[in-house]
Amino acid sequence: MATFCRALLLATPPVHVAATLVPVPLAALSFAQLPLFVAGLWVLRAANAGIFPLGQGRLSALADTVGSAVDSDRWSSLFRLGDLPSMWSVWCAGEEKRVGTRTVVVGHRPVSEADAYVAQKFCDNRIVSSKYTVWNFLPKNLFEQFRRIANFYFLIIFLVQVIVDTPTSPVTSGLPLFFVITVTAIKQGYEDWLRHRADNEVNKSNVFIIENAKQVQKESEKIKVGDIVEVKADETFPCDLIFLASSSTDGTCYVTTASLDGESNFKTHYAVRDTTVLCTDEAIDSLTATIECEQPQPDLYKFVGRIIMYRSNQEPVARSLGPENLLLKGATLKNTKKIYGVAVYTGMETKMALNYQGKSQKRSAVEKSINAFLIVYLCILLSKATVCTTLKYVWQSNPFNDEPWYNEKTKKERETFKVEFVFTDKTGTLTENSMEFIECCIDGHKYKDCISEVDGYSQTDGPLKYYGKAEKSREELFLRALCLCHTVRIKQADQVDGLIGHPECKNTYISSSPDEIALVKGAEKYGFTFLGLENDFMKIRNQKNETEMYQLLHTLNFDPVRRRMSVIVRTTSGKLLLFCKGADSSVFPRVQQEEIQQIKVHVDRNAMDGYRTLCVAFKELTQKEYDRIDRQLNEAKMALQDREEKMAKVFEDTEADMHLIGATAVEDRLQEQSAETIEALHAAGMKVWVLTGDKMETAKSTCYACRLFQTSTELLELTARVVGESERKEDRLHELLMDYHKRLIQDVPKPRGSLKRSWTLSQEYGLIIDGSTLSLILNPSQDSSSSHYKNIFLQICLKCTAVLCCRMAPLQKAQIVRMVKNTKGSPITLSVGDGANDVSMILEAHVGIGIKGKEGRQAARNSDYAVPKFKHLRKLLLAHGHLYYVRIAHLVQYFFYKNLCFILPQFLYQFFCGFSQQPLYDAAYLTMYNICFTSLPILAYSLLEQHITIDTLTSDPQLYMKVSDNAMLQWRPFLYWTFLGAFEGLVFFFGVYFLFQNSSLEDNGKVFGNWTFGTIVFTVLVFTVTLKLALDTRFWTWMNHFVIWGSLAFYVFFSFFWGGVIWPFLKQQRMYFVFAHMLTSVSTWLAIILLIFISLFPEILLIVFKSIKERSHQTGIFDLPILVSYKRIENGYVKTEDALTNLAERYPLRIL
After folding, report:
1. Which domains does the chain have, with CATH numbers?
2. Per the confidence metrics, is the pTM higher than 0.85?
3. Which residues are the signal sequence here (predicted)?
4. Is 727 one of the annotated binding-site residues?
5. 693 labelled as ligand-binding?
6. Active site residues
């Protein structure tokens, strides 16, 4: 058995190894444990290959279960999904593998001719975002729909009517249920068909694979790991590729990752140094190499690997691989004719797929309230059934009855009305992603220009404005620093992606950072123009129109921990210069202290104005210093272990003892009315969190500009810069969390009411956290005592006015939303974004808003609502959210009310027909009541009602808080509507009963039959519930008039038509001429009118009373349903009496 199991395990190796079976501890397992062990391994292997769509959490739990079953800690740890390769290293001889790595054979060519190539087992390149297939649509969709309590409830009613002998036809409940289920299935099926079509567009798109030195066209889904793929300009990368070569001689390419992290700027990627010359099909096909890299993981900004290249008669050459060498699926190639890359991650293992959050069914508070009400009514129905059944047998067993009795019978309601947390992206959502150079400061002297932009090109409207003047040499040094210290590249006007330059501008600047483009353009305004990089030489044109050449020796790239970047250049005279720019907190500690004060004043002022500030410094290097730096940098770049830490140390030593030159101010333009919208959301009691993939400095400046952070807000920071990169960073994180928690507990008053009220009272603190620190909090190391980090972090967040999360991967955005959504009290969350990187958080939130931005329509397609701009969120929530809630709450209560009025007379009728189950209403009336007679008026009300104008709701955010606690669907209003329905049901039945008891109601002395009795009750019922809705309507349109009066007219017409024809398919013509004959009696007319008036009299009396009270006291303006729905507005939200008085004066309308 053990040998058989080992053979099974070797049948599907996850990595390419020359496997030789060696003794393994399988023999130590018992006979009963072996099947479970093998089955568990197969399930985990299938899940790892993408066959079973199991989540990471379920896989880990399965691994633990299997490991525990075989009673071995070793097996339990090996079964972990991320550690599968290490399991093979136990069973297989050969080269030892690092835990969590994979080996990719480039081009599927063996390393040497003597080796036999074994095909590798990785998942294919298909992307699946759809939910259904042709085969599972019907059962899966029905299962999802009948998981809803309301649908399941009516399904049971229908089955009871089908199985049990009932007096009513199953059609009365089956037809409405069938209609609802069918319409919902068609809608969901159509939406999933759109997802299938989108998947097919991606999976069936054509790509070019290099095979045998030729281009072979294949469908994208057929790409395998190890294939060499050619991608051309403006094409999207079909999978995650290692960049091998490009059409550019320097081995670079430019990509946009807007669909991944929201950044629409160009990013520079670099080919492997030794493969840059392989820029033809024949050359790239000659490459023999293997790639060792980490297993798939969702972090977009991390990648570790190495490529080993084999050449004949030479030693293998190894080169390190980093994120700059990885081209991610979903990114788009720009400004480069073509590139070659080898596939390392495909299909559902790509970083984009791992960051995709699957769709889940959302349940709103309205649905939860409906479910609770249905349970109450179910109990009532069970009680009624019990009573009627008991009384039936009591009646039939009565001894005075000397003859036996004979029975002669025939998805989205959304949470826009009670949002408590708003999660928003930054780039393209809050901002226009358009940077403009505003001013600069050189040696404490301010320089500002009157600049405007036309069609994206800068123009000077007048002379430069100087506020004091620095030395000429310092001015030129500062401007040279702006022209040299960046990663900007020049794009010729006639290059591949078809952009046409400005008539007076031959070149276009491209960079991964819009700030850098703005700074280069700013230097151009002052007379220094960057002309481009060619063969490692940077060219600039100075104010004298002379060209200067600088050799670019090293670029010390920006990272969020250092918060600065530097370049080392050599002038034509041989002088070595280091230019550095970065955040003030990063640059100031590394310059001469006496140079700081005069520039710090300008930096602080610009930061308070919401501008993005950068400081510029330099220093001159000796040849000896440069040689040391060059050697250390090359050693750090070649390190396979701790590469980032080693390079950071070299950067730290290099960027020291510099001289401060000046500072810049750049404006990131906000979208129109973004700040006003955020202020309105705050005033409405919502907390706004910004989740972005941008750098902290960029996001922080935007938060100040859009007034998420106020100047008085004290910021708490949990970032890599504060936590540090040492081995004890978790201890440091623990200290910060406890310190912030203690400070907030002392400074922020404890809430005495709801969470929302406590938020409104705490306006002092804001929190900033980055992605790496969030990973420590949500996924602490196993050997640390940090399992409670998440709870402390969540408490800190809830006590802060606003939270900024920067450097977030898409999956981390969804984790943040899920963390808040699952906290105590289950607050309602809303996510808004414009790119594919926002889809996960949009799907995770209760309400998802997609903005139709420049980054495609992925967010809009996966959202619950789509809006053109962020400013429209204000109207959507404050106006339409408020109105939606009032409408839907009235609809829910009205449906329960009218059906209670409908069913109660039938229940009472059983006491007068010997509990024989004789129906009170005709079967046609039972079927048509909810479908035709009473459905259209409430539908029109739910679509059109406006108890307060949209402009008023938009301009007064505090009105939103009146409905945000789900007040109209609490138990008090529910009991009010239930009492009203019970009262009117009693009036309908007993009113007709007492009128009929001692009077024939016919001139000839004949007595009406039971069908006439039921028809009169039904007529009073239909007219009363319809007129009740007419009394509640405050916004009348022609549609309201048409459906209300039209529904009553249709009922009368149908009754005449139904009773005026002998229907051959009916066994009994019991309704023939009943309605017409009934109306021949004047007494019947008077009875109907009187009973309608009595039923509506409490409502009419309430309206009159309210009107008199408003005129005499100028206070309460709400109806009883609202008065019993809305909770008292305590001090701390709004001043109660003043708010109600002002509201009554401004809006003399009766809500609901």
Report:
1. 2-99 (no CATH), 137-191+364-381 (no CATH), 223-354 (2.70.150.10), 421-425+671-870 (3.40.50.1000), 434-487+525-669 (3.40.1110.10), 887-1096 (no CATH)
2. no
3. 1-19
4. no
5. yes
6. 425
